[in-house]
Design brief:
It contains 18 helices and no strands. It is mostly helical. The protein has one domain (2-428). Keywords: Cell membrane, Membrane, Transmembrane, Transmembrane helix. It is found in: Cell membrane.
C-alpha cells in the first residue's frame, strides 16, 4: 500500500516535502523562542522585518528560481549544461537585489524610525536577509531544473534545522535583541546554500550564453503575480505597524496569529510541486476531463485543509498564540475567524492560479492579484480598529482574488485545448519555492 501511494506522487515530492516540513517547523520555533525572549516592542520590530523579508524575498526571487528551473529543465532534455543559465540567473538576481538595496538604504532613516523603533541595525539585517534569499532561490532553480530534488529538499532542511538550532541557542543564552533573531534569516540560508553547492558546481559546465529573452520572457508577469500574492498574505503586519506605530502589541500578535492560521499553506506547498505539472500536462494534451477533474480534486483538498485549520484556529487560536509565542492577549476568537476565512480563500486562489498558469494565462493571473490587492487596500482604509482593518483587508483581498480567477477561468475557453497549450518547459518546471 505504501509503495502504491509513493508511485502516485512525482519523483522528489517526498524529499521536498520533508525539507518544507522542517522549514515550516523552524518558522514556528523561531517565532516562539523570539516571542518568549523579546519584549513587545522588539517582537513587533522582528515581526515587521519577517513580513518585509518574505513579502519581497519570495515575491521577487521565487520567479527567478522558477524561470531558471524552467530553462535548465528544457536544456537538460537536450543534454545541455546549466552553467549559462546559472550565470544569467545569478546576474539577474544580483541586479534585482542591488535595486532593492538602494531603495532600502535610501529610506534607511524612515524605515528605522517608522518600522523598527529607531533601530537602524534592523535595516541592515533586512538587506542581508534579502541577499541570502537571492542566493538561495537562484541555486534552488538549478537543483529543481536538474531534478536533484533530494539536494533541493536537503537545502530546505538544513536551512530549517539551522534556524531551529541557532534560535534555541539564542534563547538559552538569554539574548534579548531582535537583531540577533533577525540575523538568523541571513546565516541559515547562506550556510544551507554552501552545504548543497557541490552538485550545482559539478553540473555547471560551459557553453554559449543564454539569451536574456529566454529568461525574461515571462518573468515580468510572473514576478508581478508572485509579489502581489505575497502582499496579500503578508502585508497585514506591516500595515498594523504603519497605521498605529505606537501599538506594538497588535503587530506582534497578528504575526503570531497569521503564522498559526496559515499552517494549511505549508501543507499545500508540498502538493503544489505536482499540481502545476499535472494540470499543464492535461492542458497540453487537450484532456478537458483530466484538467477539470484534477482542478476539482485540488480545490476539494485545500477546502478540507482550510476548514480543519479554521476549526482549530478559531477554537484554540487565542490560547495557542499566548502559549506558543507569548503573544499579547489582544486577539479573540472573532479575529481568528476572519483570518481563517481569508486563508481558505487564499488557498483557493493558489489552486486557481495554478490552473491559469497551466493554460499559459499569466496575464490573467496577474490581473486577478492586482484586483485583489486593490480590494485589500480599500478594505484596509475602512474606519475600524487596526486589527479588524488588517483582518478585513486580508479576507476581502483573498476572496476577490479567488473570485476573479474563477470568473477568468470560466470566461475563457471551456477547457484546455491543444491550440493554446503551454510550452514543454512549463510542464517540466519542478518546484515552487514559496516557503519561509
Amino acid at each position: 500500500m505504501i509503495r502504491r501511494l509513493l508511485n502516485l506522487v512525482p519523483p522528489g515530492t517526498l524529499a521536498v516535502g520533508a525539507g518544507l516540513g522542517l522549514l515550516g517547523l523552524a518558522s514556528y520555533v523561531h517565532l516562539a523562542v523570539a516571542g518568549h525572549s523579546l519584549n513587545e516592542a522588539d517582537y513587533s520590530s522582528l515581526s515587521v522585518l519577517w513580513s518585509i523579508v518574505f513579502t519581497l524575498g519570495i515575491g521577487v526571487f521565487m520567479p527567478v528560481e522558477q524561470e531558471i528551473a524552467r530553462i535548465v529543465a528544457a536544456r537538460r532534455t537536450q543534454g545541455l549544461p546549466p552553467g549559462p543559465v546559472l550565470a544569467r540567473g545569478a546576474a539577474l538576481a544580483a541586479g534585482v537585489l542591488a535595486v532593492m538595496t538602494v531603495v532600502v538604504l535610501a529610506a534607511y532613516r524612515v524605515l528605522a524610525d517608522r518600522l523598527f523603533d529607531g533601530d537602524g541595525t534592523m535595516v541592515w539585517v533586512l538587506v542581508g536577509s534579502l541577499a541570502a534569499m537571492a542566493v538561495a532561490y537562484t541555486t534552488r532553480g538549478v537543483l529543481s531544473g536538474l531534478q536533484l530534488f533530494p539536494w533541493y529538499g536537503t537545502q530546505l532542511g538544513i536551512d530549517g534545522g539551522l534556524r531551529i538550532g541557532i534560535v534555541a541557542l539564542l534563547g538559552l543564552a538569554g539574548v534579548t535583541s531582535p537583531v540577533w533573531y533577525g540575523a538568523v534569516l541571513v546565516a541559515a540560508p547562506l550556510i544551507a546554500v554552501l552545504a548543497t553547492l557541490p552538485p550545482v558546481l559539478r553540473a555547471v559546465g560551459g557553453g554559449l550564453p543564454v539569451a536574456w529573452s529566454a529568461l525574461l520572457r515571462g518573468l515580468g508577469l510572473l514576478t508581478a503575480s508572485s509579489l502581489l500574492s505575497q502582499v496579500v498574505v503578508n502585508v497585514g503586519v506591516i500595515n498594523a505597524r504603519v497605521l498605529a506605530p505606537s501599538d506594538v502589541a497588535t503587530a506582534g500578535a497578528l504575526l503570531s496569529a497569521l503564522v498559526l492560521v496559515r499552517i494549511p499553506l505549508f501543507v499545500f506547498a508540498s502538493l503544489q510541486a505536482s499540481l502545476l505539472p499535472g494540470l499543464a500536462t492535461s492542458a497540453a494534451t487537450g484532456d478537458h476531463a483530466a484538467f477539470h477533474g484534477l482542478l476539482r480534486k485540488a480545490l476539494g483538498v485545500v477546502t478540507a485543509l482550510g476548514l480543519v485549520g479554521a476549526f482549530g484556529a478559531v477554537l484554540l487560536g487565542p490560547w495557542l498564540v499566548g502559549a506558543l509565542f507569548d503573544a499579547p492577549d489582544v486577539l479573540g476568537h472573532g479575529d481568528f475567524a476572519w483570518l481563517a476565512v481569508a486563508t481558505l480563500a487564499y488557498l483557493w486562489a493558489m489552486v486557481l492560479g495554478q490552473a491559469l498558469l497551466a493554460l499559459d494565462r499569466h496575464r490573467a493571473q496577474a490581473l486577478a492579484w492586482t484586483v485583489g490587492v486593490a480590494a485589500l487596500v480599500a478594505a484596509t482604509l475602512a474606519p475600524l480598529s487596526v486589527a479588524l482593518r488588517v483582518e478585513l483587508g486580508y479576507t476581502v483581498g483573498s476572496v476577490v482574488v479567488a473570485g476573479t480567477m474563477a470568473l477568468l477561468l470560466r470566461g475563457g475557453a471551456a477547457g484546455p485545448s491543444p491550440a493554446t497549450t503551454p510550452s514543454r518547459e512549463t510542464v517540466e518546471t519542478g518546484v515552487s519555492g514559496g516557503v519561509r
